[in-house]
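Lecture notes, unit on protein representations.

Consider one protein chain, 294 amino acids long.
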Amino acid sequence: MSYAENVILANQLNEVIKGKKIVNVIANQNPHKYAWFSLDPVHRATPTEISWEYAKRYGEYLTGETVKGARVGLDEWGCPDFIYAGDRALLFGDTGNVSYHTAEDKSRPKKHQLFLEFDDGSALVFVITFGGGLFLYPVDEDGKLKHVNNSFPLMLSDEFTPAFFLDFIAKEAGKKTVKNFLVTESRIPGFSNDILHEVLWEAKINPKSKMNLLSREEYISLYNAIRTVLSAVVEAGGKDTDIDIFGNYGGFVTRASKNTAGKPCHRCGDIIVKENNYVGSPIYYCPGCQPVVK
């Protein structure tokens, strides 16, 4: 999930689970080869089967604890959502599907990797699809992770300035393609493939262009597009391609996505293109107003 989706999710979690007591925890009921669990950042990279052993202790740390709240935070590789309970934070990012269910809701997933039930009978269910972590890390009195130091500014924070972004590009971009630079190796925490195509459509930049061949004006356009699109997605409660914890689609109308592939561009009328498996996943763009700069 992108930073915008994480902000929306944290806001929704604060609405429905903050202040509730956790009465039942089921971790790793249906083992998934690419589902990881950890009780400390130093154990994050352990083999899957070993991480499953950590999952057996989640109930020990969470059962009986009251949810203090949720927010987007920084770990060593990105900016996942944090759910605070006791002296721990449950971290999750690209986990697949997170859904909230009232006590009366009979549609709860029967297969899951983490299940939290609360004292009013409601539940939060995590179902991992392609892969992801459900980490339960210790935090200090300020809610920051112990043993982790990630000082990269969140993209909608005051610290994420044009000057910072330009300096970051100068140091990191090299000859990488735009997509490679933005979404691989967690260079920018929270910038994922989920938001890439909308940002690049807004900036009129092609994901296959070379970063070192873009102009300073295009870098500034990219920065402005990041701020504009993320803010708009949060304001709209998500994109029209994403489902929230209640099963509803967001109100942000995507311009370059699976919903618009093969249809005329909203800006120039050319046809939105989908190319499969470019740097590991599909890309969407308009060849008319997002020409490739090689």
